[in-house]
Amino acid sequence: MKRLFDNTTLSNMNLKNRFFRSATWEAMADNKGHMTEKLYNVYENLAKGGVGTIITGYAYVTEDEQPNPRMMGIYNDSFIEEYKAFTDRIHKFDTNIILQIAYGGSQTNFNVGERIILGPSAVAHSIYGVTPKEATKEEIRGLVESFADASLRAKKSGFDGVQFHAAHGYIYSQFLSPHYNKRTDEYGGNIENRARIIFETLAAVREKVGTGFPVLIKLNCSDFIEDGFSFEDCKYVCKRLEELGIDAIEISGVVGAKTEDRSVKEKGLKYLENESYFRKYAAEIAEEVNVPVILVGGNRSLTLMNDILDNTKIQYFSLSRPFLREFDLINRWGGEDNSKAKCISCGKCIDVQGNSCIFSRNKGMD
């Protein structure tokens, strides 16, 4: 029988348990994306707290494209030495650390008038109202190379792997979505074409880092809008990524869709059946691909996660906000207290001055 505290392997990584800290924008880097002592402390506390694998907050891959303030960067070689020190601090606790890399696109309200923002097509963002410049093929090739260069820097820095952020409305998510992607060339139209930029990115990254370096991806199971990226699209992309050598797939869902999944996030997780709210999609994908599937979204209860582990092929569980409330949650669960996470999913942890649980802030804690 599988256990949440099993030792497992993923590519060449040894994992001490099945828990991931899902990528979380901390808003604690400096204005150029470099580390601060406050950010070091956040990650060191997470590692001390027992989680097996940490995925960093998203790091921007080109210097001129920062979708949010005070996010981590990986756009040139100046990051390598400080990230070596960073990964060394995390590895002391037998914890893996994976760098999430991203290009934001039109899902932003940060310095919008001061930079060129690329997108698959010149379609205004449905929430932010930003209309991007349609990327040329040359700009697409440049973006692919930026991801590959960032991945090589991550490897040189001692990270255990990288994760492409292709979910939640950022640029790769927009390429996948017919709502935002109106192209008529080889990067638009059917799902093979809409996903082409991701497939090319994986190939370019593999050429730079080799086959022994784990490469993961985060995908929406669906955009939950009529003209968006569908669940059938997602299954197709996952199967193609398996063929192309992806090492693991984290299944999430769109943030901002007007669906029951959004209502769960807005109202909080009041009942067990509303936890782990993308599990039915992740479970179906896990049946169809021979690649480890990581479930994220509303994971709060050991009881439910154990049930999912026992009754589906989902292998790993990723949490974000619960670690803002309890950085040592996994140590607690590994001891005698297996009560559900204290996070109430109120969403008030988001703060551009540094994301943290409101209850901890009220106590004067970091």
How would you portray this structure in words?
The chain is α/β, with parallel strands linked by helices and 366 residues long. Strand 1 (8-10) and strand 2 form a beta hairpin. The strands form 3 sheets. The chain has an 8-stranded parallel beta barrel with strand order 3-4-7-10-11-12-13-14, surrounded by 6 helices. It has a two-stranded antiparallel ribbon with strand order 1-2. It has a two-stranded parallel sheet with strand order 8-9. Helix 3 (137-156) runs parallel beside helix 6. It has a single domain (8-362), classed as TIM Barrel, CATH 3.20.20. Helix content is 34%, strand content 14%. This is NADH oxidase. InterPro entries: Aldolase_TIM, NADH_flavin_oxidoreductase, OxRdtase_FMN_N. Keywords: Flavoprotein, Oxidoreductase.
Write a brief structural summary.
With 366 residues, this protein is an alpha/beta fold. It has helices at residues 37-48, 80-91, 137-156, 171-176, 191-194, 196-209, 231-244, 260-267, 279-288, 302-311, 321-325, 329-334, 358-362, and strands spanning 8-10, 13-15, 19-21, 53-55, 59-60, 72-73, 96-102, 118-119, 133-134, 161-166, 215-220, 248-252, 293-296, 316-319. Helix 1 (37-48) runs parallel beside helix 2 and helix 3 (137-156) runs parallel beside helix 6.
